[in-house]
Amino acid sequence: MLIREKTTDKPYSQDEWKKGYDSQPNEYDYWVDNIEGEIPSELQGTFFRNGPGLLDINGTPVKHPFDGDGMVCAITFKNGRVHFRNRFVQTEGYVQEKKAGKLLYRGVFGTEKPGGWLNNIFDINFKKIANTNVIYWGDRLLALWEAAEPYRLNPQNLDTLGIDDLDGILKPREAFGAHPWVDPSCQLDGGKPCLVNFSIQPGLSSKITLFEISSQGKLLRRYSHITPGFCFIHDFAITPNYCIFLQNPVSFNPLPFVFGLKGAGECVQFNADKPTRIILIPRTPPHKAVKVFEVSAGFVFHHINAFEVGDQVYLDSICYQSLPQVKPDLNYKEVIFEDLDPGQLWRFKLNLKDNTVSQEMFESQACEFPTIHPDKVGRSYRYLFIGAAHNRTENGPLQALLKLDVKTGERQFYSFAPHGFAGEPLFIPKPNATAEDEGWILMMIYDGKHHRSDVIVFDGQNINDGPVARVHLKHHVPYGLHGSWTPESFI
Predict the structure, then answer these.
(1) What are the binding positions for Fe cation in this chain (predicted)?
(2) How far apart are the first and last CA of the chain?
(3) Most CB atoms closer than 10 Å: which of 57, 377, 415, 487?
């Protein structure tokens, strides 16, 4: 077990960090006029971002930020200028609660309707909050939440168009995951790109269904695999030949949830004595030669990448020694970071010939939300960009950007401490780039000193030098989850 040194002074204020979870009920639409530095002239397109925008319903706080209503931001870069727009996803539950002026739905992660267990018993109807990711694919802008169908938005103004079954790709009430990957050159489709995503039906045995969708939004392949046990899977990984799932060692007892005593997330139990299962599902029809490996790996939310070398498959992931239990008597804003296991970078090496697996940690600093060059998805890669804690040897909120050369171990690092708190970075390749790290990093930072958010632009080859531009918004955006980039400018 890693022994983490403790520092006497925190590089952040807990009170400032908390304010990043204040609700943002307002919707904005404006050209940003407060920019430090210079926006690169070649940076043209739209940075979409999703996350919980409402952390309370008319004054009643949600129990966990993951239960907050989805709010999509569009940050458009055009001719050296930046435009900001945000809109709430008009889900059925959001519209109903806004009209009623009170909380009407239970949340997955512990939010309960007022009135105690008697008002929650047998109510298993979740609000579809569409708050986790947003992608533009096949001329559709989709707000994603992995427990339900996507909501389609108008990319020009972010107006909600309604639930989208992707022209019949999704069956009625079939979910569409919040962590799709784009294969930049699918060998099954003559080198054309395709979107790969999944849906899970959990239970005593869990059904994983995979979708591969063309850039025109047409279904290319659909296939399924049933795995024994309950699945709590947020992310997966792809290579040219496999979809890779890491089945975390958790169990789920639904009875306290059904009887209104706990939220669903509070009924998930991490089993440290159980192995993690790594499932390789072939992408080539008939998708039957599934391989399963067992390893002691803790808990994983996100993967960095996967790739193949001969008979070896490599999977790089952010691993935690344990999953913090969601408890009804704990306030998520009062978290003590130093008492939690940090996310650290691990590599799993899967031998397809003898069905063995080895693992090693290659970065111990607390970190989350990785990004790589999009052309390297499923391929051997060199550079990784990821949000990181300020201190090298102690857990904490994300306050920095870390660039890691996974081949040499060379690091570049820039911290926004003590007042800045980092979101997910996104790598945007420069036009006609020849080097893998030749691009820009975009990320949203919450500035606790000014209670506002900044959109930050880095040169991907020079992280140590700090941002080339800081776009100061007029307000704060609550801590978000995931986002994406398109070279189209919707203005």
Answers:
(1) 179, 234, 302, 482
(2) 51
(3) 57
What distance in Å separates the CA atoms of residue 126 and residue 117, rounded to the nearest whole number? 16
463/448 Cα distance (integer angstroms) = 22
Using one digit for the tens of pLDDT, what is the confidence trace for 103-133?
A: 999 888 888 888 888 888 888 888 899 999 9
Q: Is 419 annotated as a binding residue?
A: no
Domains of the chain: 26-486 (2.120.10.30)
Mean predicted confidence (pLDDT) in 412-427: 98
Q: Which of 32, 127, 12, 21 is nearest to 86 (CA)?
A: 32
Backbone region of residue 451 per phi and psi (left: phi > 0; alpha: psi in -120 to 50; beta: other values): left
Strands (E), 296-355: 299-309, 312-320, 344-351
Give the pair of three-digit tokens for residue 448: 């606790």
| Nearest to 444, CA basis, from 367, 345, 369 | 369
Structure token digits, residue 447: 């500035």
Please, how many CA atoms are within 13 Å of residue 463, restricted to the half-sphere of its CB?
A: 25
Element (H, E) at 356: strand 356-363
Tokens of 454: 């900044």
C-alpha 80/C-alpha 55 separation (Å) is: 34
* Lateral strand order in the sheet of 219-228: 181-186, 192-201, 205-214, 219-228
Asked if the bond preceding 431 is cis, omega within 30° of 0, the reply is: no
The tens digit of pLDDT for each residue in 209-227 reads 999 999 999 999 999 999 9
Nearest-angstrom CA–CA distance, 153 and 142 = 6
Cα–Cα distance measured from residue 70 to residue 253, given in angstroms and rounded to the nearest whole number: 27
The H or E element containing residue 471 is strand 469-472
> CA-to-CA distance for 95 and 118, rounded, in angstroms?
25
Contact 447, 471 (CB under 8 A): no
Taking the whole predicted model, whether its pTM rises above 0.85 is answered as: yes
Residue type, 59: G
What's the token pair of residue 481? 């989850």
Specify the amino acid at residue 408: T
Q: Is 302 annotated as a binding residue?
A: yes
Report residue 273 as tokens: 């004595």
CA distance linking residue 405 with residue 491, whole number of Å:
37
Task: Name, in order, each residue with C-beta under 8 angstroms of 318's C-beta and a sequence gap of 6 or more.
Answer: 300, 301, 302, 303, 304, 343, 344, 345, 346, 367, 368, 370, 386
Task: Count the residues in the chain.
Answer: 491
Cis check for the bond before 254: say yes or no (omega within 30 of 0).
no
